[in-house]
Amino acid sequence: MTEVKAYAANSATSGFAPSTIKRREPGAHDVEISIEFCGLCHSDVHSIRSEWGPAKYPLVPGHEIVGIVSRVGDAVEGFSVGQRVGVGCLVDSCRECDSCLEGFEQYCEGGNVGTYGVADRRNGGGITQGGYSQAIVVDENYVLRIPEGMDPAAAAPLLCAGVTTYSPLSYLDVQEGDKVGVVGLGGLGHMSVKIAKALGATVTVFTTSPDKEVAAKDLGADAVVVSTDAAQMEAVKGSLNAILDTVAAVHDINAYLRTLDRDGALIQLGLPATDMPPVDPGLLIRKRLAYGGSVIGGIAETQEMLDFCAEHGIVSDIEMVTAADLDNAYDRMVAGDVRYRFVLDNSTI
Question: How many Å apart are CA 346 and CA 349, to the nearest integer?
Fold first, then answer.
C-alpha cells in the first residue's frame, strides 16, 4: 500500500481537513495516476453532507479526475507512463450483467462501484476514496484517454457533467434541426447547451433568473425563457422536441412538459434531496410524452463524449480553487455562485 495526501470530511458538518489515505499497489491490470485536477460536483456536496443518505466517513470525494499515468501493471496494454488520462464516476462494475456487457456500466445490475464512498469489493472491502487526493489506482477498464490539446483542468468536469448531458442527448438521437430545452444554467446546464448546439440543435434555456440571459446566449443558447413568467412560458408551449432538466432543487416539472411537442421527452438529470411534486399524467397522455431519467454514462460512451468534445472544441467553463478553499467553494456551489464549475488544483494538497 502507498500513502498519499488528501482532503477528507470526517462528518456531515466537519468541513474538509488534510488527511492521509492508502492506495493499493498497482496490480496486473491497474493504472496508477498522479492527479493534476479534480472537478467539484454538486453530488460531492450531497454526499459529504449526507443529503442522499448516511455517508461513510472519513470520506474523500471527487469523481472528475485528470492526471498523468505514473505506473502501470504488467498486463496493461492501453496506457503508458506519462500519458494524460481521466477517471469519472465509476471504478468498477460486475462486468457480467447485460448492462455491463452492452457498455452501460452505470446501470450495472450487480451494482457498480463509484469512485468514492462505496464498498470496493475487489480490494478487501474497504471504502473507495476519490480525487481530492494526490494519486489514485484504477483498473485499466475504467480509465479514459484525455484527447491531445484539451485543457486538462477544463476537461475534468466533462467526466461527470459532460457525459451526464451527452448520454441522454445521444439516447434521444438529438440532431440538426431539433429543438432542445435546458432547465437550469449551472454545471450540467451549461454543458447541455454546449453539447446540444454542437449536435446542431436549437437550444432554449429555462431559468428563474432574468439576469442569466446574456450568459446563456454567450454559451450558444438561441433563446432564454424566464420560467416564472407565465406569458413567456405560454409563448413556447408545444414548441420543443426534448428537454434536459438539470435542476437539483425541488421544482414542478409540469409547466415544462407543456412546452413539449407531440412525442417529446423530458429527461431528469438533477436529483433533489427530497421528493418532487407529482407529474400530471394527463400531460403525458395527451401528447404521447415521455418523462424519464438518466445518470452519467458508460465507459465507452464517456470516451466517445471526450472525443466529440475535443472535435468540437468543447470544455467546461471553470474556476480553479485550492484545497484550503474547498469549504468556501462548497458554500458557493450551494448558493449558485459559480460559472460554471469549480476545479481543484491538486498540487495544493
Answer: 5
Report the C-alpha gap between 341 and 144 in whole angstroms.
20
Quickly tell me which residue has 432542445 as its cell: 180
Cell triple for residue 180? 432542445
Q: Is residue 207 over pLDDT 80?
A: yes
Q: Does residue 310 have a pLDDT over 90?
A: yes
CA proximity to 35, closest of 248, 323, 246, 267: 323
Inter-residue contact 66 to 35 (CB < 8 Å): yes
- With cell 471526450, the residue in question is 306
196, amino acid identity? A
Tell me the pLDDT tens digit for each residue of 258-287: 999 999 999 999 988 889 999 999 999 999
Global confidence as pTM:
0.96
Q: How many CB atoms neighbour CB 30 within 10 A?
A: 21
CATH of domain 162-293: 3.40.50.720
* CA-only gyration radius of the chain, Å: 20
CA distance 56 to 314: 35
What is the architecture, at CATH level 2, of domain 2-160+297-348? Alpha-Beta Complex (3.90)
